[in-house]
Amino acid sequence: MSVEKQNKYHFLKDGSKMSGLFIKKDWSKTALGELESWPQSLKTAVGIMLNSRLPMFISWGPQRIFLYNDSYSEILGKKHPASLGERFENIWSEIWHDIEPLILAVDNGEAKYLEDMKLIMNRHGYNEETYFTFSYSPIYDESDSVTGLFCACVETTSRKKSEQELKNSEANLKTALAAAQMGTWTINLETNQVSASPELNRILGLASYKEDVVKSIEDVIHPDDRERTLTAYLHALKKNIPYENEYRIIRPDGEVRWIFSRGHAIYDQAGKAVVISGVTIDINDRKMQAETEKETLESLKNLADAIPHFVWITNEVGESIYFNQKWVEFTGAKVEERKTWNNVVHPDDTTPSRIAWENAVRTGTPYNLDYRLRNYKTGEYHWFRVYGVPYRDKTGKIVRWYGTCTDINDTRIYEDKLRESERKLDQIFMESPATLALLMGPDHVYEKVNKKFLEYSGLKESQVLKKSVNQLYPGESNNYFKDLLDKVYETGVPHRGTEVAIQKKNPDGTSETRHLDFFYQPLFNSAGQIYGIVSQASDVTDKVRAKQELEKAKDEAERASRIKSAFLANMSHEIRTPLGAMIGFADLLRDPHVSSEDRNHYLEIMMRNGNQLSVIINDILDLSKVEAGHMNFEYLESDPDEIASDVVSLLNVKAKEKNIKLHYQPDYSLPGLVVTDAVRVKQVLLNLVTNAIKFTEKGTVNIKAYSKRNTTGSPQIHFEIQDTGIGIAENQLEKIFDVFVQADDSVTRRFGGTGLGLALSRRLARALGGDVTILQSKEGQGTTFLFTFEDQPSLRSREVDSKLKYDEPVELREDSLEGVKVLIVDDAPDNQHLIGRYLKKRGATIDSAENGAEGTKKALTGAFDVVLMDIQMPVMDGYTATETLRSAGYKKPIVALTAHAMSEVRAKCLDVGCNDQLTKPINQKDLISLIVNLVHH
After folding, report:
1. What is the rounded distance in angstroms from the CA atom of residue 610 to the CA atom of residue 647?
2. How confident is the model at residue 65 (pLDDT cuts 50, 70, 90)?
3. What angle is formed at CA 514 by the lines to CA 512 and CA 517, rounded to 5 degrees?
4. 859 close to 823: Cβ distance less than 8 angstroms
5. I want to staple 638 with a disulfide (CB 3.0 to 4.6 A). Which of 437, 678, 767, 845 is the partner?
6. pLDDT for 324-348, tens place per residue?
7. Strand 845-849 to strand 821-825: parallel, antiparallel, or no bridges (unpaired)?
């Protein structure tokens, strides 16, 4: 402190903490005013207070301003330093009602002194019981009036509480000794004076402690224990060791009780025992209880050895205390081996069992675990269920663990097998190709579903499980199945449904009709009560559809059979009619008297019927080839207008014969050339126009030709054939394109025909990239057919010149083949004879062979100008014979004769080396013209 401040505040102690606080505080804001203005009496009191080490405080003026020193600040606790300069009653408001009377007395000039005054103070944030010894003295000002209070105090809380605890301890000790049946005694060994507690007299059964306790004790000691007891007493005195002994006494009333005495002697400087004091405890009840417990424990051990379980006891940390005989017999481990568990537990179970034990010890909860223990005799491991419970002392501390081990090996093996069986069943359940679901309770709640169920329903497992059938499939559409499930649950009778139609919703929102076979099997518990249903369902839609298709196919087959039967009858008529005419008129020609005019007429009839028969056979063959996919097409550039014009030219005569007008109207859109098979286009167009003329009694047949672009941008040729004929009934519009079918039997009877034309025409048209359809038809008014085919340049075929270079016109004369030598190779004698007659009439020389092998020899050795080679022959066919001749260097022309009109047959003939090919039946003019061209060119 500076000199100036020392002079100014000389009454403040330099260096004390409170002096500093006094100087720092702004006293002008208090009732006391600035420090230098304080009265001398106050300054003197403050100086005394600050220089004292005793806790002191001053209360000054009517406002009772509180001032205190360093030692008192510790009494204030958390109220320091905010209490400096505050009102007394505000600082100690909680004890003001206790000290106010004292302060008022001081105001009247009285001094007060109190010792160990009890006060309930709040100085650390909570109420506490405190004790103080203090004096209150008045402070007088210059006018000899009381203006303040001076207090010196000492807190006696610790001493006061210690005294109270001591009193409580003494009282508790007396109570404890009495409760424990414990008496105290002291013997002065020099005077034999005895000091004994009343409890000791009660224990010994004596009337008063004033009696000669020592003599009394000797008298009451049981004769069997007296010598041992006295010897122990004297030995303790001699050896300067505590005296301890248990022995029996016989009370004056004859009761025998066990007591325990303990004492210790005090020795003088010479080592002589002068005083011995100790305690005597009545242990009879405990001794009897121990005996009882011993007997009980022995009984329990016998019981533990008799039961089939292992019984064990451990201390609080798991060290073995007891095992019954069954444990020893099984494991071979003795209780002395403190940690035998690790030696007998299966290695795989050691860690789980240890973790479970540590958890039980830590939490104080029962220990319960299944693991394997080794049989020391066999070395095998058996499953046991090990269960242990903690035993606690009176304080709640665990001091023992009692437990058992129950052999569950057979049960565990059974459970393992059962689990494996359940696993397999579960796998079968989950992988079953049928949809399976386990429904529980009367509400049919989904407990389990397999993969097929989820796949079929399109749902996730979380969307299905724990939901009822009504929740998963609400709505009337599900009532049928819900009612059946209810019935099965109520009656316990299984239900099977087959091929039940349902509407299945697809993930994309669409629905489709599916068919299910399903089976509801009730599940019963051991009491015979139903608790659930197994639902099994299989989607048999494919089987149902296959069945329907089979039925449909059967119907179609039966229909086809009926159609074929009708066809055979019709075909028999169509074939036998021309054949009968040919045979009949051939028979008439045998008559030598037939006139020349009749002969020519008969021959004309036979030729006409033969041609008709050839057309029928060609249609049948063409249709079978299209159906089997064996017909080859020759795609070449053709003029559609020319094809149509040829057809009109060919059929004009027939139309005129029926007085029908045949018109052809080509459109400007019709292209000049297209790539297609002109022969087949012409065949289709001939069929359609011929039919139109055939079924039209009067009126016209119009052919319109035009072109349109299809979806790919390629030109598509259209032919519309419109007639004013009989028309077609609506229910027959599609049937007429079936094989062997005509509109009805009356049409067949009226107009004839095989019913092959339209079927063949449609198949040929579709093979050419188009179709044959009916644009319109009305009975009695006519029909309009539409025939389309595509221009297909990408399918252009290798062009084959049907007459090669031998296409020059030939004038046929009687001697056209004069000097020409021809070899006919054919296995049919009639064919040899017929062809030979054609050629001989024109002057040719003829030789023949019956098969390809014979024909090859003759051709190579004879000087033939032409070889006519049949294709289908025994021994060696015409293909092989031709190849053989060409391989041998044969240069002369070879003409193939075939019964097939297919383009692929013609192509093959040319490929093996034939110069040309003719189709049977052989046209006489075509044959002679071809030979003339071949020989002369």
Report:
1. 22
2. very high
3. 165
4. yes
5. 678
6. 888 888 888 776 665 567 778 899 9
7. parallel
CB contact at 8 A, 575 and 613: yes
Q: Is residue 599 exposed (0-12), middle (13-18) or buried (19+ Cβ within 10 Å)? A: middle
- Comparing 190 with 348, which gets the higher pLDDT? 348
Whole-angstrom Cα distance, residue 697 to residue 708? 32
Quick one: residue 401, left, alpha or beta (phi over 0 = left, psi -120 to 50 = alpha)?
beta
Secondary structure class of 304 (helix, strand, coil): helix
3-state secondary structure (DSSP) of residue 599: helix
Average pLDDT over residues 205-231: 71
At which residue do the structure tokens 């303790």 appear?
236
Residue 221 gets which letter from DSSP? B
**What span, in angstroms and rounded, lies between the C-alpha atoms of 786 and 719?**
6
pTM of the model: 0.35
Fill in the amino acid letter for 777.
Answer: S
Tell me the C-alpha distance between 835 and 833, whole Å. Answer: 6
pLDDT (tens digit per residue) in 495-524: 888 888 777 777 777 778 888 888 888 888
b/e burial code for range 399-412 (CB count within 10 A of at least 16 → b): ebbebbbebbeeeb
Longest CA pairwise span in the chain (Å): 200
* Rounded distance between C-alpha atoms, residue 631 and residue 900, angstroms: 12
Q: Which residues contact 455 (CB under 8 A, 6 or more apart)?
A: none
Q: Cβ contacts of residue 465 below 8 Å, gap of 6+? A: 446, 447, 448, 449
Instruction: Round to whole Å and give the CA distance between 841 and 813.
Output: 10
Task: Locate 255 and state its tokens.
Answer: 């009761």
Q: Contact 636/797 with Cβ under 8 angstroms?
A: yes
pLDDT digits (tens, 9 = 90+) for 655-703: 888 899 999 999 988 988 999 988 889 889 988 998 898 889 889 999 9
Q: How many helices (DSSP H) and strands (DSSP E) are in the chain?
A: 30, 32
Sign of the alpha-carbon torsion through 709, 710, 711, 714: negative
SS3 722: strand
Contact 553, 561 (CB under 8 A): no
Q: In this structure, what are the phi and psi dihedrals at residue 81, rounded to the nearest 5 degrees? A: -100, 10
Record the tokens describing residue 1, joined without a space.
């402190």
Cα end-to-end span (Å), the chain? 158
Name the range with the highest mean pLDDT among 115-124, 528-537, 545-554. Answer: 115-124
Nearest C-alpha neighbor of 374 from the set 344, 347, 349:
344
CA proximity to 393, closest of 316, 460, 469? 316
Instruction: Look up residue 570 and give its two tokens.
Output: 């019709």
Q: Is residue 101 exposed (0-12), middle (13-18) or buried (19+ Cβ within 10 Å)? A: exposed
Return the closest-CA partner of residue 913 out of 868, 879, 862. Answer: 879
| pLDDT at residue 417, rounded to an integer | 84
Amino acid symbol at 785: F
Tell me the chain's radius of gyration from C-alpha atoms. 68
CB 294 within 8 A of CB 288: no
Residue 488: burial class (beta carbons within 10 Å; 0-12, 13-18, 19+): buried
Per-residue pLDDT, 212:
47
Mean pLDDT of the chain: 82
Phi, psi of 265 (to 5 degrees): -90, 155
pLDDT tens figures, 888-926: 999 999 999 987 766 678 888 999 999 999 888 888 888
By C-alpha distance, which of 321, 343, 398, 397 is closest to 367? 398
| Rounded CA separation 104/109 (Å) | 9
How many whole angstroms separate alpha carbon 25 and alpha carbon 22?
Answer: 5
| 103: its two tokens | 């302060």
Q: How far apart are CA 100 and CA 668, in angstroms?
A: 137
Q: Any bridge partners for residue 417, and if so which? A: none
